Amino acid sequence: MSRLFASVRARATLGATLVVAVALAAAGAAVLFSLYANLTNQAGADAERAAREVAAELSGGVPYQDLTLDDTDRPTQVLAEDGTLVVASEGLERISGTASDQVRPAPSGTPAPPPPGDDDDDEADDTAGDASGDDDGSGGVLGPGDIGDDAPLSNGSATIDGQEGDYRFAEVEVAVPGQGTYTVFAGAPLAAEQNAVDTALKVMLIGFPLLLGIVAGVTWLVTRRALRPVEGIRREMAEITASEDLTRRVPEPGTHDEIARLARTTNETLAALEASVERQRRFVADASHELRSPIASLRTQLEVGAAHPELLDVPGAVEDTVRLQHLAADLLLLARLDAGERPMDARVELAALAEEVAAGRDGVRVTAEGPVEVAGSRGQLERVLANLLDNARRHARSEVTVSVRQEGGRAVVEVADDGDGVPEADRERIFERFVRLDDARSRDDGGAGLGLAIARDVAVRHGGTLTVGTGPAGGALFALRLPLGGER
Q1: For residue range 99-121, what is the model confidence (pLDDT) as tens digits?
Q2: Cα gap 389→401, rounded to integer Å
Q3: Model's pTM, two decimal places?
Q4: In the CATH scheme, what architecture does the domain 343-483 have?
Q5: Deepest of 52, 76, 148, 198, by most Cβ within 10 A of its Cβ?
Q6: CA distance 485 to 409
Q7: Check: CATH 1.10.569.10 for 246-341?
Q8: What is the pLDDT of residues 237-254, one digit of tens each?
Q9: How many other CB atoms are found less than 10 A from the CB of residue 425?
Q10: 410 φ, ψ (degrees, to nearest 5)
């Protein structure tokens, strides 16, 4: 089960189903509540109408025995001011939810109101009504024959002719001429309302699970279709991992959604990884080739020296050893740069550093507009300047110039020579590792082809750039641009 819900497809289906379930439950509860409230209000209106019909008969002087109380669906009570039951509907056996649980009047009964039309009695009734001070529910007093405006509602139950049920009761007050104020309770059955709510609830209990099943099934199918390209990507990546063939690419869907962008990004990553691995392979092969020559030369000299000590070329052996040492140092620095080593944030003053690096090199002239400070590794920046000056000295006819200045919020160091310059087609290639434009040039004169590659990598790690163009004297012009101190 845990493995099942580890699937994105299963989690999406479960999540969608839960969201729909919560929405259906909330909507169902709201519908049931609204239905119950509307039907209950309707029952209350029916009960109030029945109570007012009886109250109207009482206010018109209809005797108790002639009141319309034979509706078996509407339990009715008429109570006197003291709460005594005056009359109740036929067949009423039990009642609750009204002001009295009596279902039969007292044996002595209550005298019926005198017939209307007796002026003396009417005047007495008017006096009695005024003295009683009964409220009509709107702040006034009920006069003879008046019916109260308010009709408070309550829920209760009743048993009529052996049939028990729940009812909505309405309470209406009426001033009976010559008799005082009476209260009429009439009920309307709630059975239809309860049946309607129960039916709606049963429909929901049956329909909601079916709807949730449909939602789950549709979500499962839709997510399977949507995630099918992801499975293709995963399968292809697994095969690439097993075969170690970085030339392969994952399939890209023809859509423009997130999965298509994922496939394109994955292929871009594979392409970058392939290029990185190929670069690493070339680097290892070129490094092995460059190391082989000085090692072979040094070994030859040592073997000759061992056999014929008088023929040992000590200066040549030392030169090969130094050359081997420089090459190893360059390879180590490149390895650190490839590993993502971040330069230190020390303050470096480029004008002073350029003067220091140029000291001891013939034909190098340094000009500076003033102190120019950057943040970074002094040792690495020194290596950049040394590599640029060494490269310029190898190609210059007579002079190398170094200028240091600030330009547009950046530090600029330019190294120019008066040599033949760099052809435009080769101005990016010279920054590749182990590249030497003059293949006929000896390694002793030209180095291993790592100086400019190291210089550009260090510049990039310091947030800067290193480019080459044409200098004022027609030779090469290398421009190093770095952020000023604290702006990297």
Answers
A1: 999 888 877 544 444 434 344 44
A2: 9
A3: 0.50
A4: 2-Layer Sandwich (3.30)
A5: 76
A6: 10
A7: no
A8: 899 888 888 888 888 888
A9: 7
A10: -130, 155
